[in-house]
Amino acid sequence: MAERRRSVSVDDLARLKREREEADERYNAALTALDNAIHAVPELPHPPPDPDETLVTPINTRWEILKARPVSPAGWRGRVAAFVWELIEPTFAAQQSFNAALVDHLNRNIAAQREIPKSIASTLALLRQQLDLMLYFQSFLQQMTSYVDTKDHEFTGLGRRVIEDAQEEVERLDRMTRGLAAGLSGVSDEMLKRWESLLARDQRYSGRIDEIRSSLAVAQQQVAALKREFERPRAVASTATVPSEGQVIRREDEAASTSSWKYVGFEDLFRGSRDEIRARQEGYVPLFAGASDVIDVGCGRGEFLDLLTASGIGARGLDLNHEMVELCQARGLDVAEGDAVSYLRVQPDASLGGLIAAQVVEHLEPQYLLQFLEQAQRTLRPGATIVLETINVACWLAFFESYIRDITHARALHPATLKYLVTASGFVDAEVQFKEPVDPANRLQPVPRAVRQGGDDILGALADSIDGNVERLNRLMFTHLDYAVVAKRP
User: How far is residue 436's CA from residue 331's CA, in Å, rounded to a whole number?
Assistant: First the structure.
């Protein structure tokens, strides 16, 4: 690229310097002529002479004209003199009083009159000094102004040269930056393509890993179940005889027991880990404080039994799933295998200190649920607590995300329905406690505030209507995922 042509060259800078020096010489000559032309300070007037004090002393000695009343002679002359004195004495007294005031005034002002010439002389001297300083200062200003003006030419050129140098450097850096940006853009595009490729590959691998993990968990559960089945002593039936009806039933039960590991895998995959379940059920522990012999119906993997044991509350569990029961027993928990109604029927009246059935009642048919509540009311002690937790089917998200996913669910129970059944079965103080609120981020969102800030009444009314519908839908679809009915045995 051709070199940028500058408006101020080196020769221009040298020429401007010579012009400045010549201008300095001309200014110096002009200043000399100006200084010579400045007139001297004009002669200031002399101060007035001192006041004339020649008559001050005679006036002070002659102002008193009435010193003493003259002695009157005897006879008629004395009477005439006294008469005349009476006539002229007031006039002389008045004159003497005037003279006294005049003398006093002169004496009071004589000192001030003496200072006036001195003050005027001092003022004239100070004025002459200030005039000299003003002329000197004016001359100095003229010199400084001329000197600054002569520097402007060179400094202006230097400034223009610096600006052009800076502009040229900026343009050079801009060209370099554009080239670098183009290179980086190309590298960024290539990196982005590779990143997208790696991300897609990672997603494929993550999906495959999840599939492998699920398959591995299923295989582990199946192997564990098969191992326990093979280790259990079995009566070897003769292959030559036809099995009896009881044998057929036992074989069906064994087949169900052998496949029970599948539901364990289902629990692990969809319901959550043991730590998550313990965290959800921890709030129920205070309801059984001070109780003993609490039964956990449908105890599953034994999460709530762990919580009760850790709190010093005696408890036992019951579950239909053979695999679940063996998992709990392997951890040292007191868990029996069987259905709730059959188990409770053989328990004595008022023998249990509490009952909890978490995520169980939705698996029961209506008739069986009523029998379960009847037996629970019979076997619980007076004042004992019953807790029935289930999916909140009144929340659409819970119904479609959780309820219909489990094929073992038999009936959806509305909170009001289950509370009524518990109360009708003889329990008191029944209340519904909602659990697991839906994350606000997953709820329907209202209209943004910016829509109402425009001042459009129609748009504002439309936003209010939408917000009202959103709130109603949120109350139906996105409230709480679970609920529990808590009641007391009277």
Answer: 28
What is the strand order of the sheet 428-437 is part of? 335-337, 315-319, 294-297, 352-358, 380-391, 480-488, 428-437
Rounded to 10 deg, the angle between the 245-258 and 322-330 helix axes is: 60
User: Closest Cα to residue 137, out of 38, 28, 26?
Assistant: 38
Orientation angle between helical segments 245-258 and 76-231, nearest 10 degrees: 140
CB atoms within 10 A of CB 379: 21
* Long-range CB pairs of 409-417, under 8 A, 24+ apart, other chains included: 409/362, 409/363, 410/362, 410/363, 410/364, 410/365, 411/362, 411/364, 411/365, 411/366, 411/369, 412/362, 413/361, 413/362, 415/483, 415/485
Rounded CA-CA distance 437/480 in Å is: 4
Residue 4: name the closest of 172, 194, 136 by CA. Answer: 172
Q: Which domains are assigned to the chain?
A: 10-180 (no CATH), 358-365+379-490 (3.40.50.150)
Cα Dmax for the chain: 207
What does the DSSP 8-state code read for residue 403? I
Half-sphere exposure of 310 (CA within 13 A, CB side): 10
The three-state secondary structure class of 390 is strand
Evaluate whether 347 touches 380 at the Cβ level (below 8 Å): no
The model's pTM is 0.49
List the one residue out of 149, 165, 150 whose CA is nearest residue 9.
165
Closest CA relative to residue 412, chosen from 400, 424, 427: 400
Q: Which residues 6+ apart lie within 8 Å of 478 measured at CB?
A: 395, 396, 397, 438, 442, 443, 444
- Phi/psi of residue 300, nearest 5 degrees: 60, -125
The answer to whether 489 touches 381, Cβ cutoff 8 Å, is: yes
Q: How far is CA 479 from CA 51, 391, 433, in A?
A: 114, 12, 13
Structure-token match 């379960």, residue found: 372
φ and ψ at residue 426, rounded to 5 degrees: 105, 5
Q: What is the pLDDT of residues 263-308, one digit of tens each?
A: 444 555 556 678 888 999 999 999 999 999 999 999 999 999 999 9
- The C-alpha angle 455, 459, 461, rounded to 5 degrees, equals 100
d(CA 385, CA 407) in angstroms, rounded, equals: 30
Check if the beta carbon of residue 324 is closer than 8 Å to that of residue 304.
no
pLDDT tens profile 366-404: 999 999 999 999 999 999 999 999 999 999 888 888 888
